[in-house]
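tokens incoming
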């Protein structure tokens, strides 16, 4: 049974005339008659009574008619939904983001909402390990983070932009006017750092070889907003990516006097998985954002 045959059946039932139904369907009368006979043959019943002047539904045809109408309506609804998804008029997008990376999303989220107000965005802030697990279980469509040193076999990662780990302090801090800051200088100040396992902290410890330095880590925080508020209101110093503090009032960053302190902002997807159009569009918007002030990659 084909959807086309159901449409032919319904039109004949409505018009009670093969020639008029054929005209409205823009097919020949012989084609229409053949398709109706094939439908009847597949069902093993007669749907119409016919004579030279009149066509009417049989009892079985009358019973079949509402079901045919519903099937056509549901098929049309499916087509409309597909078009809605293709045009980003409906749907959901599940985005996972690490705590450090989350501060970079605001402008992209607002721009996406402006362009596609009917797409629901679900944003999950987790550690990079938890996000990779969520991706593997297909609980999120895409994850955003700085590149991890750990490899995840089922995950494909693509660089969006490159950035440097920087020393971060409030704008009136004595270090704020420095051209660069060495690890030795950092030993003289109380530090408030992201907790162990967060990507900025991992990068710092990789660069610093902390066993060789006498750092005064007085505060550890796993919430970047809390950490930045502490920095803004005190003489505490932290280390974060330059991009993280790019739009923060009352805070500034100074480069580290050390080589190879690059942090790569990445998106991650499950290998061999289908990437939804809404995912591609969100990443396109994110990659075009000018707020980073960074070396961004032309991905889309």
């Amino acid at each position: 049974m084909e959807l086309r045959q159901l449409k032919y059946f319904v039109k004949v039932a409505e018009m009670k005339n093969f020639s008029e139904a054929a005209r409205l369907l823009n097919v020949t009368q012989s084609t229409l008659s053949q398709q109706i006979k094939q439908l009847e043959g597949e069902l093993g019943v007669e749907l119409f009574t016919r004579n030279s002047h009149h066509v009417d539904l049989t009892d079985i045809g009358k019973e079949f008619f509402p079901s045919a109408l519903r099937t056509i309506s549901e098929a049309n609804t499916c087509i409309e939904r597909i078009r809605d998804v293709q045009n980003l008029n409906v749907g959901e997008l599940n985005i996972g983001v690490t705590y450090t990376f989350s501060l970079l999303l605001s402008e992209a989220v607002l721009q996406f909402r402006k362009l596609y107000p009917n797409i629901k965005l679900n944003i999950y802030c987790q550690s990079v390990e938890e996000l990779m697990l969520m991706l593997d279980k297909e609980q999120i469509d895409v994850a955003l983070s700085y590149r991890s040193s750990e490899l995840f076999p089922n995950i494909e990662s693509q660089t969006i932009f490159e950035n440097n780990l920087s020393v971060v302090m409030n704008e009136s801090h004595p270090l704020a006017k420095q051209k660069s800051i060495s690890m030795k200088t950092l030993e003289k100040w109380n530090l408030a750092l992201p907790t162990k396992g967060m990507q900025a902290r991992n990068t710092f410890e990789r660069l610093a070889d902390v066993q060789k330095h006498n750092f005064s880590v007085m505060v550890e925080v796993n919430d970047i907003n809390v950490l930045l508020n502490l920095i803004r209101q005190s003489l505490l110093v932290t280390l974060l990516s330059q991009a993280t503090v790019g739009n923060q009032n009352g805070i500034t960053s100074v480069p580290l006097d050390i080589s190879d302190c690059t942090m790569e902002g990445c998106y991650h997807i499950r290998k061999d998985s289908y990437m939804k159009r809404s995912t591609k569009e969100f990443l396109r918007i994110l990659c075009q954002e000018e707020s980073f002030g960074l070396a961004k990659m032309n991905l889309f």
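note: The chain has three domains: 3-86, 92-161+263-296, 163-261.
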